[in-house]
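Subgroup meeting minutes
Present: P.N., E.W., G.H.
Scribe: E.W.

1. P.N. recapped why we're keeping a running log of single-chain structure predictions: easier to compare across weeks, and new members can see raw inputs and outputs side by side.
2. G.H. added today's entry (451 aa).
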Amino acid sequence: MGMSDAKRDVAAGRLPSHQVQENFADLHPPLDRHGATVEADRCYFCHDAPCVRACPTSIDIPMFIRQISTGNPHGAAETILKQNIMGGMCARVCPTETLCEEVCVREVAEGKPVKIGHLQRYATDALFADGKQVFVRAAESGKRVAVVGGGPAGLSCGHRLAVLGHSVTVYDARKKLGGLNEYGIAAYKTVEDFAQREVAFILSLGGIEVVTGRRLGADLSLAQLRADYDAVFLGAGLGAVNGLGLEGEDLDGVVDAVDYIAELRQAKDLSVLPVGREVVVIGGGMTAIDIAVQSKLLGAQDVTIVYRRGKAQMKASGFEQDLAQTKGVKIVHFAKPARLIGEGGAVRGIEFERTRLGAGDRLEGTGENFTLSADVVFKAIGQTFVPDGLDGGVRLEGGRIAVDGEGRTSVPGIWAGGDCVAGGQDLTVAAVEDGKNAAHSIDRALRGAGA
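Output recorded in log:
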């Protein structure tokens, strides 16, 4: 049967609900007390620990592991959260295999690092289970700061400012805070509504007001915020998805991966989500892996990721690429989309041109094409910053907000951090660090002469 003869097949309920629930169980079951103690005992507690230097938030990893080994998980959690308020989420989603664990002395010597991410989760989960608040606010400063965007950067900045005694108002365009932690990360990494439990922990400190359903450039004015507050932090993230630049992107079944993941994350019953039988994902980053694996877990028969360069150039870590393949996802390298094939207003397939690296690693087409049939084509080729509402001369660099080493923008009184700034790493842990650093810069400015 040829492609044009086949009926596009997108349906809900490909798998029974209990099977979908099982498929979306916790990717990494948590360590129990015995397992955590055994793993903590593997740490050499290096004096000049390379894992600390590799952590974007500079968590004292040997310290918190030692606290776990002595039966003090709450103390370990405090050590973690004082450096990274989203240590619980980062323990679940951080690419530890390319950060702290990659440089672990055990990894270098034996090829088996201490499971730092698992231990970090063990400690923070223990603290969250007891509902203990480890932070105390400083005396009220009388200063007010507006935070635009309630994702990792905004929440990190707002929390640290509240700890320092300032009053914070967090504005977010969506109904829930959390940003990509709530709307953009694979469901099997953040089970049991963890993103919202972490948000609740952050807000329980006090001093942070939340206003949802307000978007910068629509019903939120930067000029008004500057007039109403002593400082503004922009942590708006990336609001648009890159297009393929092909005719037919408006065909039914050509979908932005981030939009579908957001829908999936908010669904009460995953088994009722429509999923294609043949799914093609275009991209090579974490979003591409997440949407491909989740499509497979929802019952898609054939899922193929197609990336224009090679395995080594994929932004997704080796662990994530291996995870996708163990779940039955096929990954095709060195091919770029050339033409969307539609029928009756819906996508039926996509044609690719094979690519190669030419002189200077410049990507070039080979002229050889192939076609994959598809009920759904997911676009996962990166997101872009939407500069709506950036009145007042906030300078951009490469399409994102330009900032200095402290997160200060070109406009006095406005800071920025996270994915929306130039040079951002597009990692939760990096966004948390941006927010924390900006908060300290804001604090210094507010307490300085003439503030």
